[in-house]
Amino acid sequence: MGKPEEPYILMVVETYTESGGGLHGDLHVRPIAGQSISANLRVRFPKALRRAHPLGTRFLVYAKLTDKDGGNDFVHTNHAWDIQVLGPPPAGDDLKYKK
C-alpha cells in the first residue's frame, strides 16, 4: 500500500450507488463533502456493513488517503477497527446519492 506518511484521520463516509465502469457492484462508499479528503474518492470499506444498512447511511471511521503501488488515490479503512453507524444524513442535506 502506498503513502505510508499519510495519517489515519477521523472522517464521515456515506454509501451511494454508481453503476458501470468495471466496478464491483453498484453500492459504494465515499467521504462526505466538507472534509479534508475529497468527496470524489472511493473508500475501501467492509462490504457487509455497506449491505447491512440503507443507501445513504453515514459512518464515522478512521481512514487515510492512499494508492495502490502508484495507482489512483482512494481512502482506506481498516476492517478490524470499530466503525460507528451514524445513520441517514440530517434533513436538508443533499439527498442525491447517485453520481
Q: What key phrases describe this protein's structure?
A:
99 residues; mainly beta; 35% strand
Rounded to an integer in angstroms, the radius of gyration calculated over CA atoms is 13 Å
Extract low-pLDDT stretches. Answer: 95-99
Helix content range of the residues, please?
under 10%
Mean pLDDT metric: 83
Shape: globular
Order of helices and strands: EEEHEEE
* Number of helices, counting only DSSP H or I runs of 4 residues or more: 1
* Number of strand segments: 6
| Major sheet characteristics | 6 strands, mixed
Cα separation of the termini = 27 Å
Structural summary, described in words:
- It is a single chain.
- This protein has one helix at 47-52; strands at residues 9-17, 27-31, 43-44, 58-67, 73-77, 84-87.
- It is mainly β and 99 residues long.
- Strands 1, 2, 3, 4, 5 and 6 form a 6-stranded mixed sheet that branches.
- It is globular, with a radius of gyration of 13 Å.
Topology at a glance:
Blueprint: E1 9-17, E2 27-31, E3 43-44, H1 47-52, E4 58-67, E5 73-77, E6 84-87
